[in-house]
Amino acid sequence: MEVRLGVDIGGTFTDVVLESPKGLTSIKVLTTYAAPENAIIEGMNRVCERAGVPASAIEQIIHGTTLATNALIERRGAKTALITTQGFRDVIEMRTESRFEQYDLDLVLPDPLLPRQQRLTVSERIDANGDVLIPLDRAEVEALCDTIDAAGYESVAVGLLHSYLNDQHERLIGEVFAQRLPNVALSLSCEVSPQMREYERFNTVAANAYIKPLMKSYLGRLAGRLREQGTDCPIFLMHSGGGIISLENAAEFPVRLVESGPAGGAVFAAHIAGRHDLDKVLSFDMGGTTAKICLIKDQTPKTARVFEVARTYRFKKGSGMPISIPVIDMVEIGAGGGSLAHVDALNQIRVGPESAGSEPGPACYGRGGERPAVTDGDLLQGKLDPDNFAGGTIPLDKAASSAAIRAHIGEKLDLDAVEAAYGLTEVVDENMSNAARVHAVENGEDLSDYTMIAFGGAAPLHAARLCEKLGIHRCLVPTGAGVGSAIGFLKAPFSFEATRSVFVEFKAFEPSIIASTLAELREEATTFVRSCDANAPIEAEYKVYMRYRGQGWEIPINLTAEQAAKPDRATFQALFERDYTQLFGRTVAGLEIEATVWAVNATTPTPKAERVPATAATADALPQGTRTVFDAALGRTVEAPVIERDTFTLGQRISGPAIITEDETTIIVPSSRSASVQADGCIDLQVKG
Amino acid sequence: MASTVSKQVMWNRLISVVEEQAQALVRTAFSTSVREAGDLSAGVYDAQGRMLAQAVTGTPGHVNAMADAVPHFMRRIGVETMKDGDVYITNDPWEGTGHLHDITVVTPSFKHGALVGYFACTAHIVDIGGRGFGADANSIYEEGLYIPIMRFADQGKVDETLMRIIRGNVREPDQLVGDVYALATCNEIGHRRLIEMMDEFALDDLGEVSTFILKNSRRATLEKINALDHGVAHGAMTIDGYSKPVDLRVRLEIMEDRVLADFDGTSGLDAKGINVPMVYTKAYTCYAIKCAIAPEIPNNAASLAPFEVIAPENSIVNAVHPAPVALRHVIGHMVPDTVYEALDQLLPRTVPAQGAGTLCNFQVSLRPRTDAPAPEHARRSEVLTFNSGGSGARPRVDGLNATAFPSGVMTMPVEATEHAGPVIIWRKELRPDSGGVGEFRGGLGQYMEVGAQDGHEFDFSAMFDRVDHPALGRVGGGQGAPTTIARSDGGAMRGKGRQYVPHGQRVMLAFPGGGGYGIASARNRAHVLRDLVRGYISAQSARDDYGLSDEEISNAYEQARLGQDV
Asked: Which residue is closest to B57 within chain A, CA to CA?
């Protein structure tokens, strides 16, 4: 495969990257909301022209998109009904019965995805052993079909209690609907997310059903438009777990496309980690409104089984809707170049999550923004060049930044403009560091032996300061950082993870049941991957989630193929105790162990990153000028040489303080660090000495 | 001398440290109340024992209790005897957090041999021996094992005698020991982060940071109090109680530099375990007032200090040893509504109408049937669940449906509950017409039906209120529906206490709704129609309470049938 196209539809820009024998060519075009495929066609034609490759030569397109996420956030899905067990109509509305913000008397909870009148029930019940307590009557389902038909629903979600253990009632409903209402899209929770915990599962199947017609129609249109353009190659979709699936599977399980863009970013960072042979990496992606942080161990991004989308209240945990699908585990916080700052009643500077966006933008954009944003703070400290922002296309107004920061921070805290700007960026850097620290603790990791990989427009400005705060010694800033996700798509393997809840108490450890469960999951996952590539070798990665009986949180344990084929109680226990100790310091003697969830990820081999030999820097770089910049660790301004990234070449080094500029971003090298260039163009920031 | 900016950064850092500390506890704890429901706390203190930051977790009941606990430990243990590696423990209801089921663990933090601060954490464990969790004890001695403030570990060495005594006195010894270790571990994680921070900022002690945090918090809290009109108001609320109804009375006074809540006039002790130690009353009083006047100021020694709470000794809100206190939450959760009865007069249009208040918790003790031969698979099991009624309507928005207030704990998933034991939850859904009518409607309560798998019978330990005293509305709003409880064969059941349920029977529960706010005729018509289409209210209520015409009602039902959103 020689010519491939990666396409990432984001909120503002659609990024298109062409991989051809001539190398990578990328372009950013504005996202066209009404018909997102238009931006893809435009971007494809322009990038092909730039690379001198005809669009008809493209052999494969890998696509990721925020459309699914946005449809959930903006509630632009199909008319959808949820069919559920009698007595449990309100599960997705009652949530966890708690308030995610304890001190807000006027708190309003987000509306459920489907209002109550769109939630219908059937008389049936399965118990926690998977046994049928009340059988489902086919005639009742048939009558329900008529109700659904009369109301004109476009999509139906089915979520019944304990269906992850016994799917026969959900399947019966599916069968009747497929027969009688073949044009209504159907989603069964036992297929979309066969995991225990009804709130998460019902919500996930409802979300899948809600966006299914929209995504199906979009993907169909996209394929058609590309064919018209003479590009008749297979199209694959990036999924939230960091792999790619076929267009048909994506249309069936669109909820798996949620957060595919950021997942691409993590895959990109994992690829860079591979090039530099790094086993412990913290990826740091900071854009205009949010920052995303992900742990990448052994060149594989960490994954999770559930995450929250569409948070409605200051990115607060619990204010969104939970989606239980395999996903790259990321922390996302409201910290970006456009995040706004103010001083609160405690005389504390607060930054974000409210963002100035691109309109009006930070005060320095001169588009009417009066409140100070992170970019204003960066500008006042000399981290940005007002005449060369975004390649000189957006002139920045330093006086406007100064006025905004003085009025909103400086005067309230009796600080001058630069000190106040320092306070502002110090707070946002601390917020991001804290998020990274908590994420590391939750995963039992110590960040001090990690390497950071920084990308996204705002990350290189802040990355080194985060490293100082987190005790991270090394940071790489790759080239193409502005289109990292789209590049990541091209580096992703075909993969699909199948999961299932099956309770196994260790005192009743049945090797044959475990082996057959894992074999079935492998079969299911492999079938998905096989539909993408008929010939590639497919590897299976086995995982079991285990805990002490009585605990509520499981920890994931990786199994080898051998351990999966011949499950052995003592081995499983030893693996659990090893990982538990690593996470929490000690095991708990005398307690029963149990396994709750089993997962198999089938994947084609990850494209091997070509190793980049480490290059020692022997010569000093030749900077073009100097600039005064504030060094946060020193707490004062320093004179820093400025060098254009294009002129900073292999084998050269520059000692901090220094500033490395390029069109897309600026890399700040603080006094504590020096920078060199690696053979793949990565800028390598390391602690001096 | 640290700069203003670094002190700001360190304050943020300490808040992040206690959140980390709490998170570690949730992940390693065994009791469902901690890991699923979030019934825990974590805090960091300076060397004088002043609380600098506290994690925002599921339960406001620990708010002041945590702030007060560390000074008790300093006094009882003796600061001069403290050594690096020590860990202290208690479950004293009066010096900890209000009942024997809360274990508090305190760890001194040493840097270069000098004591620089403390970490404390608390978790609600499921069993501490005695009669088991419930209201039925006549004194604290029947409620379980009492652990006075003492060393759990002496310079890293765990007190094995204590551990044997604990193991010998509780029903689930492994889990409890696991929870105690989890508490110790979470303090250790906090300690490590604190030392890292002090290294980063080259600090030998927390003096300057502590002064900065406490000074700013005090100033901000006082500014909030100063902005209020001074005045006095009285609040009263009557609730079910256990053996007889309980009158809660409060006199609230807003002064220049503090707010005083005096519970004089409140009923005396109940014979059964629903009495409340003062720390817990203080916590819920402070929480209620802080929500209304200073919600964004984090809890610490200085931000809590201006709220003064007093109550006559041996009133039900100031129970002293040896009163039974296991279910102190049943009364404690009603304190905010009582305080709001008074605060509403001083700060109109700020606080909500009365709500369900007390969490609608129950414990099910299952066993093989005794009326006939039980099947072989039948087993014994204890299952505890947390559930919520509706919250009171607010001055500008409806109450929250089936959502806890003032408690912040979460419910457990039904699928998880049914894995915990042979219990079957047949129904758990919203209860239409249970929210008090008004311009803003009270939150809906919920229905639950609880039974057992075939071959089992059970005891049902009820912990409900608002059976005889439903939540009242405010400014003309209607009252919420009361709690009801009965057996599926129609047999009567009580709102509190342990009750036998024979094989094949279910417990039919309807949890209370919140009170309404403002008069019903002022309600936005679109909201009435929406409520009708969604089935939050019945046709009868739409007609009688809100004046909808028959035509409007039938149109709404047609919209509902067609699944139209309104």
From this structure: A102
**Span of A547-551, B229-233, B357-361, B391-395 with lowest mean pLDDT:** A547-551
At B258, the pLDDT band (50, 70, 90 cuts) reads very high
Mean pLDDT to the nearest integer, A451-475? 95
Instruction: Give the residue from A211, A242, A276 where a domain finishes.
Output: A211
**Count of CB atoms situated within 10 Å of the CB of B550:** 10
For the ranges A132-141, A485-494, B105-114, B344-353, which has the lowest average pLDDT?
A: A485-494
Return all residues near B436 (Cβ < 8 A) that are at least 6 apart.
Answer: B353, B392, B393, B399, B442, B471, B472, B473, B477, B478, B479, B480, B513, B514, B515, B516
Closest-CA distance of chain B to residue A83, Å = 13
pLDDT of residue B412: 86
Cβ neighbours of residue A225 closer than 8 Å, sequence gap 6 or more: A37, A38, A40, A41
For residue A504, what pLDDT is reported? 87
Domain coverage including residue B207: 4-218
Which chain A residues are closer than 8 Å to B19 by Cβ?
438
Segment holding B250, helix H or strand E: strand B246-254
Residue A358: its pLDDT value, please? 66
Contacts 24+ apart (CB under 8 A), A509-513: A509/A567, A509/A569, A509/A572, A511/A566, A511/A567, A511/A568, A511/A569
Pull the structure tokens for residue A521. Answer: 């999951």
This complex has an ipTM of: 0.94
Please report how many Cα atoms fall inside a 13 Å half-sphere around the Cα of residue B388, on the Cβ side. Answer: 30
Q: Are B325 and B140 in contact (CB under 8 A)?
A: yes
Residues of B in contact with A585 (CB under 8 A): 185, 188
Residue of A nearest to B24 (CA): A442
Contacts of A553 in chain B (CB under 8 A): 26-27, 35
pLDDT for B384: 85
| Residue A395 scores a pLDDT above 60 | yes
Last residue of one domain, picked from the residues A487, A505, A520: A487
Give the pLDDT band (50/70/90) at residue B2.
low
Contact A164, A521 (CB under 8 A): no
Beta-carbon contacts of B164 under 8 Å, excluding residues fewer than 6 positions away, are none
- Cα distances (Å, whole numbers) of residue B95 to A687, B73, B75, B278: 49, 8, 11, 10
Q: Are A289 and A311 in contact (CB under 8 A)?
A: no
Chain B residues within 8 A of A195 when measuring between CB atoms? none
The one-letter amino acid at B548: L
The answer to the question of residue A609 being in a domain is no
Q: What is the pLDDT of residue B410?
A: 87
Instruction: Using the predicted structure, report yes or no on whether residue B1 has a pLDDT greater than 70.
Output: no
Residue B284's pLDDT is 95
Quick check: B394 and A55 in contact, CB under 8 A? no
Q: What is the CATH number of the domain that holds A239?
A: 3.30.420.40
Report whether B102 contacts B89 (CB < 8 A): no
A50: number of Cβ within 10 Å = 12
C-alpha triplet B190, B191, B195: angle, nearest 5°: 120
Q: Does B189 touch chain A (CB under 8 A)?
A: yes
Q: What is the pLDDT of residues A196-212, one digit of tens each?
A: 999 999 999 999 999 99
B379 vs A: CB within 8 A? no
Contact A151 B414 (CB under 8 A): no
Q: What is the pTM of this model?
A: 0.92
Domain count, chain B: 2
Q: What is the pLDDT of residue B120?
A: 96
**Does position B185 have pLDDT exceeding 60, yes or no?**
yes
Q: Do B561 and A151 touch (CB under 8 A)?
A: yes
Q: Where among B183, B218, B253 does a domain terminate?
A: B218
Q: What is the CATH number of the domain that holds A544?
A: 3.30.1490
Å from B96 to nearest chain A CA? Answer: 22
- Whether omega for the bond prior to residue B336 falls within 30 degrees of 0, making it cis, is no
